[in-house]
Amino acid sequence: MADTLNLAADPVELTAALVDVPSVSGDEAELADLVERSLRAQTALEVVRLGNCVLARTNLGRPKRVVLAGHLDTVPVNDNLPSRLDGDLLHGLGTCDMKGGDAVMLSLAATIEDPVHDLTFVFYDCEEVEAVRNGLNRIERELPEWLKADLAIVCEPSNAIIEAGCQGTMRIEVRAKGVRAHTARGWMGVNAIHAIGDALRRLETYEPRHVDIDGCVYREGLQAVKVEGGVAGNVVPDAAVLTVNHRFAPDRSPEQAEQHLREVFAGYEVVVTDFSAGALPGLHTEAAQELVRAAGGTPVAKLGWTDVARFAALGVPAVNFGPGDPLLAHTQQEHVPVNDVRRCREVLWRFLSRG
Amino acid sequence: MADTLNLAADPVELTAALVDVPSVSGDEAELADLVERSLRAQTALEVVRLGNCVLARTNLGRPKRVVLAGHLDTVPVNDNLPSRLDGDLLHGLGTCDMKGGDAVMLSLAATIEDPVHDLTFVFYDCEEVEAVRNGLNRIERELPEWLKADLAIVCEPSNAIIEAGCQGTMRIEVRAKGVRAHTARGWMGVNAIHAIGDALRRLETYEPRHVDIDGCVYREGLQAVKVEGGVAGNVVPDAAVLTVNHRFAPDRSPEQAEQHLREVFAGYEVVVTDFSAGALPGLHTEAAQELVRAAGGTPVAKLGWTDVARFAALGVPAVNFGPGDPLLAHTQQEHVPVNDVRRCREVLWRFLSRG
């Protein structure tokens, strides 16, 4: 691995270099080290390290500040490393979600010499796992002033167009209980795994809502993401746990979403393990309008949950704008069009630089 | 610890003495030493030691031979040692499974002077763990003539009545495949955990057979014993595995049981991970009939799998006959009624002794 990245390089090359340093959630130290070293070596920014988060900013006394945010981690490797350029597409884990966006941020950090607004760059860890581990929590707790801004741009994949708002997400455990017995006399027990069958049936027949807000359509979802149960190979199991992930439109609060899930899984013990509120689309502020003009086109609804909701909760208007198709995130075939990477870098450079 | 056990003592005292020498699977050496020394000191039997197995036999040239078999090991200690006599019940680890049976065997070895049939006593190790470690395997491999007989009596707990044959057991994995996707766009994927729902529905509605063989009713079973699936909290999972344990009556071979399971779970990938054949009751032979008469009452079907199936596979008719309730085996509350121990010793003495 190079001692530092060349931040002035083509952002596509930079994306490939970031992808080729594996950084599955919880294991981002090597990549965070590299990003930190590169920013310190090649920019005049104030740089701070916090765990596996790397923060950098200008302090020019501009009237407004824009924060650009990107997570450094990826979902688990799925036989899709290292990166591979094939024509106009860069393939590999994290190309789309979201090292293309990280590369755009690093390129801007190294090349904008006279920004219109003060700039804060936030690279953080553990976005792809339980919300409680998300690096933004620690920043909010220990360095809250680093998240203050007039606009936040979260460079998650959005096909290089502005996506507004985001859906909420909630994880619950649906728990079944039974009574242990030897499987040679199974009728003496109650099988908790069998009891999960009905919950799976409800998932199969569930009809998710399609919710229209300000012309943006949010499409909800309800998916089992884990199932676990069993004592020994000859024992009727007395416990089984099904973990379900619900994605809900921003017209519902987390409390309303929880109530809905308790109705869907009535009869089971339901425990909420993790949730994040959604964010309503919020494009009315001046800085957001400037960005919309720089990007051109019409903003659309964001379906996935992203950290725009965290910024929205802090009172910072926030949008998604990044290279790559979010539908490819977390798939083995994940890739990013090189033109998306270059376009995002150009749009943001035009928006942020006096030129 | 005494240098030798008093084999001529009340078999209940002998049971307590055996229980008070812990012998969890893999750790039977001390107890095997004690049994070997006691047999050599107090009987005229030919005694052979093989690992932690102790073998003893008469060589009187009788026309028939009966083998009595008992394992020396127990499941792990569960705060249930030493033994404790409370009224008519002897409590403690191994009282039921199966040092009560071992004590009956040792008592017979020391007190039958003129047996009707030649006798072989087999005390063996590692019955409570993976089949591959079972001491009977080593005996079958290295001293196969020691397992030859006209009837085998496995002194596992059977409430002091004859339990004939045993059911087979088979474990399979029922595997479902899907396609990964981000849960924010679940409709792009195929959820493998949801796909397990139909297999659970088949388990819920499964009607196990009750099979009557020679007047013994075998009650089959089909139970999920493990379920596993999930990639990450925000990923539609592409794989889920349900492990199912089938207990089948001895009218079916393992091949027939597998065929049945493939029909039950048609549409799924089914992989057999582990099986043991059952054993037919085999009560038609002369020696078995003599034992049935000595015991009185009506033999019943053995539902759990025991080593009678190993003898059956060697062509030796085999039954379970031992003190204690098999439902208590492997429980912390394990105990044996002292009357069961004495009754088993008396029935077998009547069956085996001319005296």
UniProtKB/TrEMBL annotation, chains A, B:
NCBIfam families: dapE-gram_pos (TIGR01900)
Name recorded for this polypeptide: Succinyl-diaminopimelate desuccinylase
Domain (Peptidase M20 dimerisation): residue spans on this chain: 168-265
Gene source species: Saccharothrix mutabilis subsp. mutabilis
Main EC class the enzyme belongs to: hydrolase
UniProt-listed Gene3D superfamilies: 3.30.70.360, Zn peptidases (3.40.630.10)
Keywords assigned by UniProt, alphabetized: Hydrolase, Metal-binding
EC annotation from Swiss-Prot or TrEMBL: 3.5.1.18
